[in-house]
Write a structure and sequence with these properties.
Elements: E1 3-12, E2 15-25, E3 30-35, H1 41-49, E4 56-61, E5 64-65, H2 71-77, E6 79-82, H3 94-100, H4 110-119, H5 121-125, H6 136-148, E7 154-158, H7 166-181, E8 185-190, H8 193-199, E9 202-207, E10 210-216, H9 217-221, H10 224-230
Parallel strand pairs: 3-8, 3-9, 6-7, 7-8
Antiparallel strand pairs: 1-2, 1-4, 4-5, 9-10
Helix pairs in contact: 3-6
This protein binds adenosine-5'-triphosphate (ATP).
Family: Belongs to the ABC transporter superfamily.
GO molecular function, one term: ATP binding
Protein name: ABC transporter ATP-binding protein
Length: 234
């Protein structure tokens, strides 16, 4: 197992965002977290990347307890997040944004740069453009490309399809599949449950900070309760 959350609770002040959740991600998998607004999906990713402290429980990566490890050390260890709302540096060029993703690396990252441009040819074409002037879909590509520059073992993606036109959603999902095919484990948070379940190997359903279901993704696509609650009920 690559990544594990054991009985994790997280609070924002008095608000309990996560209530004893346990999640496992195996090497090579695409695992997705689905759930309504406010279910705790983003908080789960922030907890894994070290942006939110635990109230209780533990987070394990490659067999080590990383519950109190600083965020930048988790990046070095192999955990990289592409944040919700993209979080790119708008005044910097596309190229500079990608380089920022490698800030913690001391080794040669030219292969990952080449790979990012290969996965996203549009970014290569626009490498000198200010990232803030790129379209929504292109900014999403910058955010994912930047996360890949850290050469992660697990890539955490928070709503990569948010605000994108259907055609671009397809494109982003097939690139995620390709990233996984090339060997990176993926933990994907999505509102677009249908697409996420089609892509993922396994899935967890979060409701008000608790895991209410976990199963192979294909099984959840056929689950009447999941269909009614998250897949438009058809
Ligand atoms: P969405 O899909 O809408 O982004 P989510 O499933 O990612 O939702 P979270 O953002 O993890 O949900 O939020 C979980 C709970 O924690 C919600 O009740 C939310 O209001 C609360 N919460 C999140 N961030 C904060 C914060 N900075 N301060 C206070 N409460 C917060």
């Amino acid at each position: 197992m690559l990544l594990e959350l054991r009985d994790v609770s997280v609070h924002y002040g008095k608000i309990r965002a996560l209530h004893g959740i346990s999640i496992e991600v195996n090497e090579g998998e695409i695992v997705t977290l689905i759930g309504a607004n406010g279910a705790g999906k983003s908080t789960t990713l922030k907890t894994i990347s070290g942006l939110r402290p635990l109230s209780s429980g533990s987070v394990w990566f490659e067999g080590a307890d990383i519950s109190t490890m600083a965020g930048h050390k988790r990046v070095v260890a192999g955990i990289s997040q592409s944040p919700e709302g993209r979080g790119i540096f708008p005044g910097m060029s596309v190229h500079e944004n990608l380089l920022m993703g490698a800030y913690a690396r001391k080794d040669d990252f030219s292969a990952e740069l080449e790979e990012a441009y290969e996965l996203f040819p549009r970014l290569k074409e626009r490498q000198h453009q200010a990232a803030g002037t790129m379209s929504g879909g292109e900014q999403q590509m910058v955010a994912i490309g930047r996360a890949l520059m850290a050469k992660p073992k697990v890539l955490l993606l928070d709503e990569p399809s948010m605000g994108l036109a259907p055609k671009l959603v397809q494109q982003i999902f097939s690139i995620i599949e390709e990233i996984n095919r090339r060997g990176t484990t993926v933990l994907l948070v999505e509102q677009n449950a249908q697409q996420a379940l089609k892509l993922a190997h396994r899935a967890y359903v979060l409701e008000t900070g608790e895991v209410v279901k976990s199963a192979p993704a294909a099984e959840l696509l056929d689950d009447p309760q999941v269909r009614a609650a998250y897949l438009g009920g058809d």
